[in-house]
Amino acid sequence: DQELKEFFGELYHIWKQGAEIYVVECDVSIHNQYFYKGKPPTVLSGRGGTDFNAPIKFANEEYNPEAIIYFTDGYASEPEIVTRKPILWMITSEGISEDGWEFLPGRKVKMIKQI
To answer: Half-sphere exposure of residue 87, counting CA atoms within 13 Å on the CB side?
Structure first.
């Protein structure tokens, strides 16, 4: 729950700068999707095992965003689907270390734990 709070805090700051943000909640598959309007949802779906492929496929074939920001702890297998757009992996403060994230394509950022 704390990591999700951190993520939506970051999302809020991006949204405040004028970005249109489309959230895709997923674990192994996509469970929910919606435009972010400045407030976190009251209920989130997913949170099971993680497979990075479903949202990347969705972005490639259905949504076609300018870029992808993938919030994750990083504990999953390398994505098999290649993204057609730039991707930024926001790794939670408790997620995989920088030493172990080379399998993720694109840029990566380790979030700093909020105190």
So the answer is: 22
How many Cα atoms occupy the beta-carbon half-sphere of 27 within 13 Å?
Answer: 6
As a whole number of angstroms, the distance between CA 93 and CA 115 comes to 11
- Tens digits of per-residue pLDDT, 6-54? 888 889 999 999 999 999 988 888 989 999 999 988 766 655 678 999 9
Chain-centroid distance, C-alpha 22: 11
CA–CA distance, 38 with 8 (Å, rounded to integer): 9
> In this structure, which amino acid lies at residue 3?
E
Find tokens 């394509």 and name the residue.
105
